[in-house]
Amino acid sequence: xxxxxxxxxxxxxxxxxxxxxxxxxxxxxxxxxxxxxxxxxxxxxxxxxxxxxxxxxxxxxxxxxxxxxxxxxxxxxxxxxxxxxxxxxxxxxxxxxxxxxxxxxxxxxxxxxxxxxxxxxxxxxxxxxxxxxxxxxxxxxxxxxxxxxxxxxxxxxxxxxxxxxxxxxxxxxxxxxxxxxxxxxxxxxxxxxxxxxxxxxxxxxxxxxxxxxxxxxxxxxxxxxxxxxxxxxxxxxxxxxxxxxxxxxxxxxxxxxxxxxxxxxxxxxxxxxxxxxxxxxxxxxxxxxxxxxxxxxxxxxxxxxxxxxxxxxxxxxxxxxxxxx
Length: 325
Description:
Helices cover 34% and strands 16% of the residues. With 325 residues, it is of the alpha/beta class.
């Protein structure tokens, strides 16, 4: 048995983007066993993943116990897809061969600060795969994985036999999110039923959008679990989303993904991966201040927020009519 420990902390999207690595190790390396180390709050994303033998969960209070747990497994290799001080400490304790992901932070810094793009035109999933090159594996081109058990299947009353569109209204940072009035305009342009998804931070915005829309809107922001939201995405015809974790979940289900980009840019390598071929990116091209960050801000540093204010909603709604009627 060859035992692998894959490490990735961080957000929903970052975890979903690692799933091809998990699958490829398990299916292409004979007699392999895959363990995954992540934060405790990420456990629901992976606990149904059929390629993972065991999840190991980190929180700020369990470090010593976690190291003992990991040492007892006697891993053969570590695949470090996070590469920070925390993972360095863990690898130093375990003392087994490791292969680390190059985050290309300097090149990202150049793009943000000087608008000089030295980043490779390669998706982050394919860059993750470079950590496995010594094992002579290949990209199976099956895309991302997301597994939902029957207990998390979520049926929306009145929509189970009707096509509907999901709009993910939130984003971790304000500068990655369309203003409410833009989302309302988009909803009013769409013929299909609309379902709003987002977290607890999106509850108030969802109420404003729902109240001002000129049609019935199904609002589940902050009301259901992540896996239930994923279930709704799985049943949808098309997903409109910002640069978020739910964008990557939609990609895993091979949905048509309409991704809308504000202060961040697809050149960072985290655009929808192997989603439906009709998927499309919408952004304000040739805006000199983009990207202003590789993550996001609470407000536009330039105060004009052109990266979202100038998004053409009619172009988006016309494209939706083109691809799904």
